[in-house]
Amino acid sequence: IQRNFNVPTTALFFLQPANQTRFRFTKKGEERIEARAVWTVRYQEVQRPTIIRTSQGKDMPVTGTVWIDPTDGRVFKTSMQITIEGRLGGQADLTSDPGGFGEVVRRQRPGDPHPVFGRERSVGSSASITVTYRQDQRLGLLVPAEMSEEYQGPATSRFSGRDTVTRITTRATYSDFKRFETGARVVIPK
Q: How many CB atoms lie within 10 A of CB 129?
């Protein structure tokens, strides 16, 4: 799976003033995160073309939830989901598109030792990314603490030629953040 949207701060990009009109936001409730009252706000991308697209330009609208402190707007958690349809089955070889997420390309290969036979069916490919943030005392701001990802999509086994649905889960943790600064001075030659 090739993807360019699995960056911890991707969902924060959707909250930028320039992107807010692309989404519908709905307050779903209130929760507590580390004793702090937060609003759970659901978002759904409604404008086309979408921000995230396959390498072939196919729209991949996102939905998700953000956990926001209503007093100061700080975001403590984000969740993002993307779902698109793929096809499995039929008399064709199924190969994942190397340049896209979840798109399936059908090619008939003469003499293929593992042709795929059977009833063609639609299978959803999905990505789900959840990021939690924590206060970094040294920097004085919220930073990503953990990102969990789950990807699911159609595939054909290279060994048996059978259709399968593959699921991949990952977890990344972040620590030791640093502020990078630079300085300069103007030297006028004499």
A: 24
